[in-house]
Structures are given as C-alpha cells and as structure tokens.
Amino acid sequence: MSDEEQSGWQLTESDPGVFTELLKTLGVPLIVDDLYSLDSETLATLKPIHALIFLFKWVATGDSDTGPGSSSGAYDPEFPGFFAHQVVNNACATLAVLNGIGNIPSLPTGSQLQELLSFTTGMDPQTRGLVVTSADWLREAHNSLSPPSAISLEGLNLPRKTEEAYHFVVYLPYMGAVYELDGLKPHAVRHGGFSEQGEGWLKTAREVIEARINTYPMGSLEFSLLALRDDPLPSLQTQIQKAQQAGNKAVEHDLLAALANENSKRERWAFENSLRRHNHVGLIHGLLTSLAKSGKLSQAEAKAKEAMKKRIEQRRARGGDMDEDD
Amino acid sequence: MPVSFDRASTLLAFKAGRAFRQDATTTVTADPAKGAILLSNGEDGLLHFMWKNRDTDIPEEDLIVFPTDATFTKVAQSPGRMYVLKFSSSDQRHFFWMQDASSARDEEFARNVNSILEDPENPLQWGSSEPAAEASSSTSAPSTSAPDAPANPTTTPAAGGFQATPEQLEALQNLIRAGGSQTQGGLGGAAGVAPDMSLIDILTPATLTPLFTNHPELVPALFPYLPSDLPLTPSAEVLERIVHSPQFRASVASFDQALRTGLLGGFVQQLGLPEEAGLGIGPFLRAIQQQADRENRESGARMDTD
C-alpha cells in the first residue's frame, strides 16, 4: 500500500469548482477560476487576484526533482509567511490552497482554519506540512469532493491516476515581493520586488511563470493556471445597484450579463460537486433495471459487445499496447 | 503515414485554425495556418477529432475522443473567436480559432461539435433554433436559471445500503491492484481474457436518452438514486445531464472494473440481487433482467403499452 492510501487523503480533481467549494468550507470568501491566458487584459477582468496556482505535469523524463525553472529566484529560508511542505501526495491541491490563503493579509477565515494557521505559526515547513495534513477536519473537507469510498475504487481509473503526477506551485505577493511556494522545495522562493503601479505583482509573476515554462522543451509540459480571487458576486451586486441608481442602462446591462454568467457558473459547479460527492451505484442499478423493464437491455448489451470487439481488434491492429498500457 | 480516411465517415467539418500557448508566452496565440476541424467516425469505430491543414491537406492532429469526455467551448477571456477543446479525463487542452469568413455560424458549429462529442449519433442541428435571439451573448449554455432552493427529495436512498465493508473493499482493491498491470484482463489470473463488454458501452447517452423519452413512467423511479443535494429538481432532463457527466461516467467505469473482478457477490446482494450476479458483467445483467421481468409480472403486465 502506498503512503497516500494510509494517509487517508483521496485524490481530488483540480477543477475550479472543487477548489471553490473547499474555500467555502474553509470559510474563506474567495473563489478559484480557470485562467487561459496571463495577458494583462485577462488578468484585469479577474481583479483582485491574490495568488496564482500553477499546476503542471512534466511529461519528459529526467531529474524531475530539480527540473528546469528552479534556477530563477532565490531561496528565502527566512520567509516569515505560511509555507507547508507537501508531505502527502494527494493533499497537494489543498496544501497549495493553504499556502495561498495562509499569506493573504486580513483574510476572513473560518475558526478551524484560523486555529490551524495560528497553531502552526513559526513552525518549519516540514512540521507545518505534517501538522496540516494530520488535521482530520481538513482531510474530511478535502475528501468530501471525491466519490464516496463504497465503490469508488480509485486507482483503477487510468486517467485519474495520471493526475497524481500533477504538481502545484503557488505564486503570490508577500511583503513587497513575489514569492513562489512549492511544497516540494525546501524553502519559499523569492522572485524579487514589484511595483504597485499598473499591474503590480502580476506583472512580475507573469514574467516568472513564462520564463519557467520556457525552460521546458516544447511539448514536454502540460499545465493549467488557476486564479485565486475575490468572490465577484458581492461587488457585482453593489455595482448593479449603483448603476441602477445612476440610471446608467448600458452599464447595468453589462453588469447583469456578468452576474448571469457568474451565477450559471456557480450553478454548474454546484451540480458537478453534488455528482462528485455521490455514490452512483444505485443509479447504475436503477438505469439498468429500467432498460431491462422496457425490454431494451439485451439490445444495448449486443451493441456493447460489438463496441468492445471493435476496440479489441483495433488494439490488436495497432500492435497490442497502444493506448491503455504503459 | 497518414491514415486513409476513405472509409471513415466525416460527421462535421468547418474552417478553423489552431492556437498554441506553450510557446514563448502563456498567452494563447493563433497560428495563421489555414485549417479545418473534422469530426469523423473512424474505421476503428471511434470518434476522431482532427485538425487538417488546408494548404497541405494533411491532418496534423488526430485525437480519439470518447463520448462525453470532451467539450468544445468558447474561451470567454479571449476577445477573438477562440475555442478550447477540454478533456474531462485529463488536463489536456487544445485551442482553435474559427476561420470561417463570418463569425455568424461559430456558435452553431460549436454547438454541433459538442453534440457529437456527447454522442456521435446525435443528429446535427443547423439553422438558428429558438434560442437564436440570445445568440449574441457568448454564453451558449442552455442556461437554466436554476431555482436557488436546493430541492431535497423526500426519499433519499439509504446510501449506506450500498456500502461495502472496509474489508471487502480492501480485498477488492488489493486484487485489482495485483492484476492492474494486465489492465485489460482485470484479474491477472484470468489469463488475459479480454472482457466481452463494458457497462460504459451500455449506459451510454445514446441508449438512455430514448429510454427517458419513450418510457416517462420509468423515470420517477430513478429519482431516489440522485444526489440529495442536487441543486436542481429531478426530471428527465436532469437525468440526461447526469448520464452525460464525467462524474457519472467515471462511476460507471469504476463499477465496471469492480464487477470484472467477479468478487462482488456479497455486494450485489445489497442491491437485492442473487450472489451469482457479482460474478461478472454478464451474470450481473442477467440477474437484473430476471429481477425486472419478475417486477413487470408482479405489476400486472401494465407495462405492455408499446
């Protein structure tokens, strides 16, 4: 059995809806959004952004520990903020979130998180990682968005398995400098100061991230970027009220569209999260029963056999071990 | 060697270029090459999402897509006509930009791409249908303004009823892991016997959608099996969304794998099935058919309406 199974931390999807739900459980009024671009206009629409989460998988072989990109910036063993090492693999998404929110000044949080943060103040990153990952309530919050253990049988699922190779790094501003918090590195990495003018810390962060991406050979890197940002709903509502009072129809219209977008995204997240938490075996049984009752099961079975036959022939034609096995 | 596409049937094709971001910047930049996106049913019986260079006529990208695994959506953050093909089973992303002279049909192509990605048998829909009035906004989602009040169905299935004991699970997991290297055979001991079918191919949207439409009387019986915290009121439409979801598909895949071990005897009894139903997919389906026949008979042949 691997460490992960013993640790009781389950693998979770790195999806904005999952992160946002976790933040809600932690009592933090922030959300996470997918970021498809680091250009200033995109970033401006998401402001204020408190941290960027860079998650990547380095698909090339080599010394993955020190990999390229680690040359920029300098270790800061004196980093006074919150930095926890990634001591449990499956916990990396939650640890990344903590490394982010642990360094946002005067952020309201739930009491359990607040206790945990203050309890670990002054600890070295390794101890902090251990303390954090041994918090039952945090593990439960993290696990609550993976399928219930009944028949989930994680680890069977090849696509999911690959997710374990994902690595999370947080970039954020801290006391006038951009820091990189990578739970697999011994210390926080300081990337130099930034100007509060214009784009502020995001300009420096973009340069650092882009430089890092460039050190990987073309095509050897799969990555996603996520933005940890203020929940835009309250401010949207205030702005809409203001626009209404000012009678500014055009602005109001745009704001209402943005609000509708945001709401439909939340609705989708809530829907997906409820499916993530659910054990679908009952439904599977029910659906098969309905097919059987309507006399359609044997037909579906014949189709499924046909599909499988084709797939096997296909695999053979390609020389046996094309896709699934490696 | 380019594959021959003669026998592959093209389902949909339109002009589009590629866009990349892994280059010198994280910004997604459009590649000027003229191209086309083609979706086709390959000779292999699988759905192919291809990108072909229109100058050289060579397909430079050929992705095999499993039903419901991918979506094709507009990149809201980009001012241009940029779309992203996103996979739910991995973090793979492929960017494209529409190259048709007019942008009028962008959403229409995207809608049809998604329809095929959900189920290659879905019929294409051309021409602007009713929601065209809102086509100007980039939200192509069938935005059901969901009632905020979470619907709490009164009957929640005893989720506990499906729990395997931790011991059963552990035994199962160990066995599966032990045979894992063989992947296809499930249990290594089964001498590499390939499975003859998968539940994933049975519980497809293509099979289930007609069921929901043609047998509305069977639909409410499924509601108790839906998540109790679902933010929508259960309905045939909601069921459809669920059977399309990667989360449901992943559950089906896991359960399929578990069944293949042949070790679910104790577990299936909790579903009211005889122990032998846990011996594999074939026995499981046979037992369900028998259970269904019995229930049909008991309910007095009220079912023979069609």
UniProtKB/TrEMBL annotation, chain A:
GO terms for molecular function: cysteine-type deubiquitinase activity. The keyword Hydrolase applies. SUPFAM superfamilies: Cysteine proteinases (SSF54001). Residues 299-326 are annotated as: Disordered. One of its GO terms (cellular component) is cytoplasm. Residues 302-326 have a biased composition (Basic and acidic residues). The record marks 86 as: Transition state stabilizer. Keywords: Hydrolase, Protease, Thiol protease, Ubl conjugation pathway. InterPro entries: Papain-like_cys_pep_sf (IPR038765), Peptidase_C12_UCH (IPR001578), Peptidase_C12_UCH_sf (IPR036959), UCH_C (IPR041507). Its EC number is 3.4.19.12. The record marks 182 as: Important for enzyme activity. Belongs to the peptidase C12 family. PANTHER family: UBIQUITIN CARBOXYL-TERMINAL HYDROLASE, UBIQUITIN CARBOXYL-TERMINAL HYDROLASE ISOZYME L5. This is Ubiquitin carboxyl-terminal hydrolase. It comes from Coprinellus micaceus (Glistening ink-cap mushroom).
Automatic annotation (TrEMBL), chain B:
Gene3D superfamilies: 1.10.2020.20, Proteasomal ubiquitin receptor Rpn13/ADRM1. Keywords: Cytoplasm, Nucleus, Proteasome. Residues 6-120 form the Pru domain. The keyword Lipoprotein does not apply. Residues 119-161 are annotated as: Disordered. Residues 128-159 have a biased composition (Low complexity). This is Adhesion regulating molecule. It comes from Coprinellus micaceus. The lineage of its organism: Eukaryota, Fungi, Dikarya, Basidiomycota, Agaricomycotina.
